[in-house]
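Query structure, 140 tokens:
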């Protein structure tokens, strides 16, 4: 799900068009954001992650196979935001599924504050869902 704000202050809530496939869905979102002149957004979605740093030699397998079958995977709700003036921010809430009872969300954790991220570490995001905002000043 996308929660976006345009340059005129209009708020837009849009379902992620995942039925189009990952790449086409992002082409559609980028074009939509460009047409609406979106200046900030938050993407909210379920994801797998690891609750630890990636081990040396593990990166290649994760890039090839993903985390779906990784024994240490953790299910989260990911919140990923971007603002044309302030940059990016990313947080997560663990999805906790007790043996009995309903699933619930753990507390919000900002990615830079996760306990396994070393102090002073630089975080970098890349991929199809990063840099989604239209480039400012490109329209003539």
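Result returned for the query:
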């Amino acid at each position: 799900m996308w929660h976006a704000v345009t340059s005129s202050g209009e708020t837009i809530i849009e379902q992620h068009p995942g039925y189009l496939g990952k790449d086409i869905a992002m082409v559609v979102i980028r074009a939509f954001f460009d047409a609406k002149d979106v200046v900030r957004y938050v993407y909210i979605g379920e994801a797998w992650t690891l609750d630890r740093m990636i081990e040396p030699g593990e990166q290649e397998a994760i890039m090839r196979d993903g985390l779906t079958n990784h024994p240490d995977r953790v299910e989260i709700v990911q919140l990923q935001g971007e603002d044309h003036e302030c940059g990016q921010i990313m947080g997560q809430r663990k999805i906790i599924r007790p043996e009995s009872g309903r699933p619930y969300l753990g507390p919000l954790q900002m990615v830079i504050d996760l306990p396994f991220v070393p102090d002073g570490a630089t975080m970098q995001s890349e991929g199809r869902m990063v840099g989604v905002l239209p480039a400012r000043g490109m329209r003539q």
